[in-house]
């Protein structure tokens, strides 16, 4: 199984600022995924990040708001830009190994005030 | 294909009883389903999976049943323990136009085990 580390684990940010979340995997993976989990709700896929190409965003998410970097096969970042209180959420990184099994980081709990 | 819902359904069971958590999925082309357990403050943890060509799979204390006719998935936990208290999510795997797989999550169920 893959071990995924996310930083920061939590943060409280002022509205209008940006936060970059880091995701580090202990092995090389082709695809990394970023999810949002709003309070009391399920996980919603934000985008898929492949190394060497631009991220693919799901409906309702745009690159200007959630820019993603994928500089190598073990690392990715997600930036939440120009934050508002509605962005308060848990942000999760995941990777797949084998055909489909997905492993998740512990998440980043973001509160925007 | 995004999950919606403002409130998690809750299943309350007594310690030692069996638990059954249900999930409806939406995409008949989904080829793979996974159950995840999420404890407070942690990311989802893989429990068990099942491929679309199967209707039952058993693990340690857990069984997943798949009914493709009605697009229904269930997770059965035998002899539920306090440590099983968590939110449980089903997820369906969808192939996105070729090589990319992505997971679409259900709304989740909060399992509360009473001692």
Lay out the secondary structure.
The complex is a heterodimer of chains A (113) and B (115).
Chain A: E1 4-7, E2 10-13, E3 19-25, E4 31-37, E5 43-50, E6 56-57, E7 68-72, E8 75-80, E9 89-97, E10 101-104, E11 108-112
Parallel strand pairs in A: 2-11
Antiparallel strand pairs in A: 1-3, 3-8, 4-5, 4-9, 5-6, 7-8, 9-10, 9-11
Chain B: E1 10-14, E2 19-24, E3 32-38, E4 45-51, E5 56-58, E6 62-67, E7 72-77, E8 86-95, E9 101-105, E10 109-114
Parallel strand pairs in B: 1-10
Antiparallel strand pairs in B: 2-7, 3-4, 3-8, 5-6, 6-7, 8-9, 8-10
Description:
The complex is a heterodimer of chains A (113) and B (115). Helix content of chain A is 0%, strand content 54%. With 113 residues, chain A is an all-beta fold. In chain A, the strands form two sheets. In chain A, strands 2, 4, 5, 6, 9, 10 and 11 form a seven-stranded mixed β-sheet that branches. A four-stranded antiparallel β-sheet of chain A has the order 1-3-8-7, with no helix packed on it. In chain A, a hairpin with a 3-residue loop joins strand 9 and strand 10. Chain A starts with a strand and ends with a strand. Chain B has 115 residues and is mainly β. Helix content of chain B is 0%, strand content 53%. In chain B, the strands form two sheets. In chain B, strands 1, 3, 4, 8, 9 and 10 form a six-stranded mixed β-sheet that branches. A four-stranded antiparallel β-sheet of chain B has the order 2-7-6-5, with no helix packed on it. In chain B, strand 8 and strand 9 form a beta hairpin. Classes of the chains: A mainly beta (113), B mainly beta (115). The interface between A and B is medium-sized, with 27 and 30 residues.
């Amino acid at each position: 199984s893959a071990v995924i580390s996310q930083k920061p684990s939590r943060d409280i940010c002022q509205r209008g600022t940006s936060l970059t979340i880091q995701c580090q995997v202990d092995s090389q993976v082709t695809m990394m995924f970023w999810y949002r989990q709003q309070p009391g709700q399920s996980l919603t896929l934000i985008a898929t990040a492949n190394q060497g190409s631009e991220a693919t965003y799901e409906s309702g998410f745009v690159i200007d708001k959630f820019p993603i970097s994928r500089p190598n096969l073990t690392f990715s970042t997600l930036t939440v830009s120009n934050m508002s209180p509605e962005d308060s959420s848990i942000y999760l990184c995941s990777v797949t190994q084998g055909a489909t099994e997905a492993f998740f980081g512990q998440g980043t709990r973001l509160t925007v005030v | 294909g995004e999950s919606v819902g403002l409130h998690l359904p809750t299943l309350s069971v007594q310690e030692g009883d069996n638990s059954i958590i249900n999930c409806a999925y939406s995409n008949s082309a989904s080829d793979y389903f996974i159950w995840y357990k999420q404890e407070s403050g942690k990311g989802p943890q893989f429990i068990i999976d099942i491929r679309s060509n199967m209707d039952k799979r058993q693990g340690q204390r857990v069984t997943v049943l798949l009914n493709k006719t009605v697009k229904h998935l269930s997770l059965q936990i035998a002899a539920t323990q306090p440590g099983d208290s968590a939110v449980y999510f089903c997820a369906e795997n969808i192939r996105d136009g070729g090589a990319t797989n992505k997971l679409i999550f259900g709304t989740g169920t909060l399992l509360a085990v009473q001692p």
